[in-house]
Amino acid sequence: MSSIHPVILCGGSGTRLWPSSRKDKPKPFLPLVGERTLFEATLDRCADSARFAPVTVVTGAAHLPLVESQLGDARQAGIIVEPAAKNTAAAIALAAARLPEDAVMLVCPSDHHIADGRAFCEAASAAAKLARNGWLVSFGIAPQSPETGFGYIRRGDPLEGGFKVDRFVEKPNLETAKGFLADGGYSWNGGIFAFRAVSFMDELRRHRPDIAAGVEAAVAAGRSEGCRFHPDADSFSAIKGDSIDYAVMENTDRAAMVPVDMGWSDIGNFQALRDARTGDADGNRVSGNVELVDCRNILAQSDGPRISVIGLSDVAVIVDGDEILVTTMEGAQKVGKLKGAANQ
C-alpha cells in the first residue's frame, strides 16, 4: 500500500497566546506541552516510515529559519515557501500541485496538541483508505464539551472506516453547542484532512478555479533551491485567499469524515493550554518560579521573576521577558485583541 504524504501547515502568529507566542516565534515553535515544540511533535507523529512518506512543510519566509532549525531527523522534508499568506486552500494546493496526482495527502496544522499518537495514526490509515476511493476526508474530533469556538461536522451515512458528511456547521452559540453534544452525531472540525492530490485539485478547480489556476501558475513558474521550493511570487500574490473549508469541503459532494478520540486540542488560548497540561491535585499548572496558596485551576508560568498568587481560581498569569499578562480563563479568548499582542 502506498505511503501517506503528510503536509504540515506552518503559519500564523498565535496572538491569543501572547506574550508567550510572538510574531518572531509563534506557538508552533514553542514547547507548550512537554519538552518538544508543537511543530516537532507534529513531525514525531508522522515519523513512521512504514506508514508515512517524507513530510512536506508549507510555510512563509519569516518562519523558514524556525522550520529548518526544528526539522531534526526529518531532513528529507520538502519545504514550500509561500510568497504571501493566502489561507489554507492555496497553501494545501501548493503541496497538491507538487506531489504525484495519486499521492494521499494528510494535511496537519503544525500548532495542535494530540495526546494519543496511536489513535492519530489509526485515524490517518482509515482516512487514507477512504481518500484512495476518491473521498475528501475530515478528522471528526470527539467533542469533550459544548465549545463555541470550533466548527462542527454532522455525520451522515456510514462508509467503510468512516461516514459521509451530512453537513459542516459554523461555530455555534452555547445552547446550540449543548444540543450538538447531546445529539451525539456531531464532531469538532479539527482542521485535519486526507485526500488524493488529484481529488483535491479537481474539487478546487470545480469550486474555486481562480485559486487553482493561480497556484498552478505559481508552481509552473517556481524554482527549486535544495529542499526548498519557491512558487512564483507574482502569480501567487494575485490569488484571493480562502480556507479549505469554504473553498472546497463545504461545497464538495465527496466529503467524508473519520471519527477519532485522540486527546486533541488546538491550544487556541490559555484555557486550552492549561487543560492540555497535567495539573496537580488542585488543577493548577505551573512552570518556572511560581508560588500558589489556596488556588485552584491556575495556569502560572514565568521565565524569570517569581509569580505569587493567593486565593484565586481559573486565572492565567504569564510572565515572558518584560511582558506580563493576567486574565481570567473566561477572558482568555480576548488576549489577541490586546495592543501588545497586535504589535508583537
Structure, briefly:
The chain contains eleven helices and 19 strands. The protein is α/β, with parallel strands linked by helices and 344 residues long.
What characteristics describe this protein?
single chain; 344 residues; alpha/beta; Spore Coat Polysaccharide Biosynthesis Protein SpsA, Chain A; 2 domains; 28% helix; globular
Can you describe what's shown?
The protein has 344 residues and is of the alpha/beta class. The protein has two domains: 4-265, Spore Coat Polysaccharide Biosynthesis Protein SpsA, Chain A, CATH 3.90.550.10; 270-343, no CATH class. It has eleven helices and 19 strands. The strands form four sheets. It has a five-stranded mixed barrel with strand order 6-9-7-8-12. A four-stranded mixed beta sheet has the order 14-16-18-19, covered by helices on one side. Strands 5-13 form a two-stranded antiparallel sheet. It is globular and about 60 Å long. The chain starts with a strand and ends with a helix.
Topology of this protein?
Elements lengths: L3 E7 L27 H8 L10 E5 L3 H6 L8 E5 L4 H12 L5 E6 L3 E2 L2 H16 L3 E6 L10 E8 L2 E8 L4 H10 L2 E11 H11 L1 H12 L2 E3 L2 E3 L2 H5 L6 H6 L5 E6 L3 E2 L4 H7 L8 E3 L2 E4 L5 E4 L4 E4 L4 E6 L2 E6 L10 H5 L1
Parallel strand pairs: 1-2, 1-4, 2-3, 3-11, 6-12, 14-16, 15-17, 16-18
Antiparallel strand pairs: 4-9, 5-13, 6-9, 7-8, 7-9, 8-12, 10-11, 18-19
Helix pairs in contact: 3-6, 3-7, 6-7
